[in-house]
């Protein structure tokens, strides 16, 4: 058998091309076998061990799997020199390609490590206050830039310093290419240092149709999930250059503002007579107010002596002032109103649409649905209680109002109305 093997080797030496081909196939088989052994045995065994030590979420980044690809590249790089008959140029090319592949694999693995660092950091309770995703993305950019230089230097078999010396001339071009990245980096630093926005904040930027919660803060973009469940991606630098509203202060205060007006018909404002005052004493919220107000007015009017006999010279209680006092006391006793914050019931300047009576207060909850329910409940009650004070809400006449007006006319007024309408038609036709 030894003689047969020696004879086969002699025959193989006589055919150098076949010898080179067979050695190359053996090297490729060794590289594939090493890759299979590492991934099938070592990597799977390590994953099985990590499954019992850590959660499986970290395994999705594939750091170990990426590093395992270095083994076949090392086998090819070290073994290509042992292949007989292979040209030196081919050996150099294979080694350079394997070296570049190793650099790329290490860079991707380090990028995955940075993703793991971000994942572990997000598990902290205060991670939303100071996110580091933007900074890690900058590190990734630097890492991949260095990896690109090393890969190119490895492929052309030159020193990386030669490429780095040429970067000075390309500085202007690189600044232009990475302009958005640099601006976003500066914006991210300012956002984090000034605590402008956090993940979970409710922000509003009308110029970009963004109104919702911040769900992600990255280097280049900030993602906002709007209330209609759409997602708006906003360049990070826009939060520095443009104005926006952050509702975090409202959420942290524990109260949400109600600022709404009732527009009252000014023709319904009048002084209260004795019968109306007597009827309003039925309101438990107004009993103290009416008593104190009556004493104050009586003391004022007593100083007028004889001139106080004329009603135009005396002070009297108005229905709108009494209603304003009722609204304030109603809000003071409402369980949904925050009593530690500003509470005002005031009149604004009269308008063509009526006299605004503004309610300015805060609810004791910031939840949207509860806030709207409390606000609606308050104005439901105020609109329904207005007639008790002899007040009316102002609204422009509608078709139904005109029909009610025509039906309310007395029969003897109907001919006059028709004559007036006919006269108007006649004047129109003549003109």
From TrEMBL:
Domain Mechanosensitive ion channel MscS: start-end pairs: 180-248
Family assignment from sequence similarity: Belongs to the MscS (TC 1.A.23) family.
Gene3D superfamilies: 2.30.30.60
Annotated localization: Cell inner membrane
GO cellular component: plasma membrane
Major subcellular site: membrane
Protein name: Mechanosensing system component YbdG
BP terms from Gene Ontology: cellular response to osmotic stress
Membrane-protein topology: Multi-pass membrane protein
InterPro entries in the cross-refs: LSM_dom_sf, MS_channel_C, MscS_beta-dom_sf, MscS_channel_2nd, YbdG
Source organism phylogeny: Bacteria, Pseudomonadati, Pseudomonadota, Gammaproteobacteria, Pseudomonadales
Domain Mechanosensitive ion channel MscS C-terminal: 330-391
Organism expressing this protein natively: Stutzerimonas stutzeri (Pseudomonas stutzeri)
Keyword vocabulary terms for this entry: Cell inner membrane, Cell membrane, Membrane, Stress response, Transmembrane, Transmembrane helix
Pfam families: MS_channel_2nd, MS_channel_3rd
Molecular function terms, GO-annotated: mechanosensitive monoatomic ion channel activity
Membrane-spanning segments: 20-38, 67-87, 93-117, 138-156, 162-178
């Amino acid at each position: 058998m030894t003689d047969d093997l020696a004879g086969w080797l002699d025959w193989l030496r006589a055919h150098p091309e076949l010898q080179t081909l067979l050695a190359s196939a053996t090297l490729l088989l060794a590289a594939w076998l090493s890759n299979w052994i590492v991934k099938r045995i070592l990597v799977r065994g390590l994953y099985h061990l990590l499954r019992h030590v850590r959660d499986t979420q970290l395994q999705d980044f594939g750091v170990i799997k990426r590093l395992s690809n270095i083994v076949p590249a090392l086998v090819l790089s070290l073994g290509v020199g042992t292949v007989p008959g292979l040209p030196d140029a081919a050996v150099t090319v294979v080694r350079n390609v394997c070296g570049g592949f190793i650099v790329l694999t290490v860079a991707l693995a380090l990028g995955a490590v940075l993703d793991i660092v971000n994942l572990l950091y997000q598990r902290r309770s205060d991670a939303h206050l100071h996110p580091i995703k933007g900074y890690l993305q900058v590190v990734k950019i630097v890492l991949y830039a260095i990896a690109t230089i090393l890969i190119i230097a490895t492929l052309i078999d030159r020193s990386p310093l030669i490429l780095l010396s040429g970067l000075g001339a390309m500085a202007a071009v690189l600044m232009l290419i990475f302009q958005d990245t640099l601006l976003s980096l500066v914006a991210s630093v300012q956002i984090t240092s000034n605590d402008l926005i956090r993940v979970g904040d409710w922000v509003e930027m009308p110029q970009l149709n963004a109104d919702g919660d911040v769900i992600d803060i990255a280097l280049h973009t900030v993602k906002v999930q709007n209330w209609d469940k759409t997602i708006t991606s906003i360049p990070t630098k826009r939060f520095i250059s443009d104005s926006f509203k952050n509702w975090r202060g409202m959420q942290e205060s524990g109260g949400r503002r109600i600022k709404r007006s009732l527009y009252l018909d000014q023709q319904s404002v009048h002084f209260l007579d004795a019968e109306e005052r007597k009827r309003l004493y039925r309101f438990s919220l107004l009993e103290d107010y009416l008593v104190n107000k009556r004493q104050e007015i009586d003391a004022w009017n007593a100083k007028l002596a004889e001139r106080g006999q004329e009603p135009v010279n005396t002070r009297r209680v108005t229905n709108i002032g009494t209603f304003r006092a009722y609204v304030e006391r109603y809000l003071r006793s409402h369980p949904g109103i925050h009593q530690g914050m500003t509470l005002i019931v005031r009149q604004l300047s009269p308008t063509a649409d009526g006299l605004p009576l503004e309610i300015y207060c805060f609810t004791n909850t910031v939840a949207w649905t509860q806030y709207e329910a409390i606000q609606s409940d308050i104005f439901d009650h105020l609109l329904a209680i207005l007639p008790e004070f002899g007040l009316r809400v102002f609204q422009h006449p509608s078709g139904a109002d005109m029909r009610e007006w025509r039906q309310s006319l007395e029969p003897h007024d109907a001919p006059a109305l028709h004559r007036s309408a006919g006269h108007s038609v006649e004047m129109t036709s003549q003109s």
